[in-house]
Amino acid sequence: MFLTATAMGRVQKKPCLSPHIEPQSLPPLPDIFTEELRRQVFMHRSYYARPTNVFEDSPDDPSPDNEALEHLGDTVLNMVVTELIQEIYPHVRVGPSTKMRSLVVGNQNLATITRMYGLNDRLVCHHAQEIALKASHNIQANLFEAYVGGLYMDRGMVGLEDIKRWMRALFRPWLSEAYRVVRIEHGLSPDPEPSPTRTDRSLGAPSRVSPSIGHLSLFNQYLQQKNIVVEWVYKDSAGEGTRTTPVWIVRAMVDQECLGRGRGNTKKAARNEAAKEGLQKMGVYVPQPVSQDI
């Protein structure tokens, strides 16, 4: 998980994908056949200690490190993952699709893949920085992108389909989890419900009934995903209701910190209001009902 600040000023975990994948189940890593390219893929710029403020290398002395291949590999990687999203989830809109791709190609995930293939052990860098560089998630992620760029340069357009087949098989588990995570961020259940069979009646005017947002359900689901335990603390509401219409007041407490407060004529309604406030404070997207008056 990544850590980010919330509106409450406290640190919150940001989604990070972690599908259960055994190294032996990974699709075989394609080889880079050109020796010069293979050497460049694993060459970190620290090895030659060239200055970083140079605008352009001399044609007679191009930089031997992997940064150019990393730049190319990043582009190939984004293209292939975008195609894979459109292939598996053709109806996902561009906004959620972009979030899914960002999660899949994030540094944490690419670093994990690099370690699973053992690529970081082959990194060539300055001996004084070797331990720190090989352990860096950013460097590991950059190395994977450089490897993808090296594959593309080695195979060219003719071999691009082979690269795509490998990457599709590799990223499917990560993409499946990213789909579930982004659905939750958009206030939906992790897995879509089966679409009802369309009838002529379904083609009529849209319903004017406001949908139930279900803040409480989403709130509980979100906390469960992050292994956070919530305690519902009720407050005395004497004098605020009647015998037939009582008023319940509740606070959603996590580690002695109040995430949200709510009140309602039932305990569930009060918890739902507290959950709504809690979701807002945690930065979770909650869709609002839209008027359908036409």
TrEMBL record:
Against SUPFAM superfamilies, the record matches this protein to:
dsRNA-binding domain-like (SSF54768), RNase III domain-like (SSF69065)
The protein's superkingdom reads: Eukaryota
Ranges of residues in domain DRBM: 214-284
Q: GO terms for molecular function, please? A: ribonuclease III activity; RNA binding
Q: Which GO terms describe its biological process?
A: rRNA processing; termination of RNA polymerase II transcription; U4 snRNA 3'-end processing
Is Endoplasmic reticulum there in the keyword field? Answer: no
Q: Which UniProt keywords apply?
A: Endonuclease, Hydrolase, Nuclease, RNA-binding
Query: GO CC annotations?
Result: nucleoplasm
Q: Where is this region: Disordered?
A: 187-208
List, alphabetically, the CDD domains matched: RIBOc
Location of the RNase III domain: 36-156
PANTHER family (UniProt xref): RIBONUCLEASE 3, RIBONUCLEASE III
What is this protein identified as?
RNase III domain-containing protein
Species annotation: Phanerochaete carnosa (strain HHB-10118-sp) (White-rot fungus)
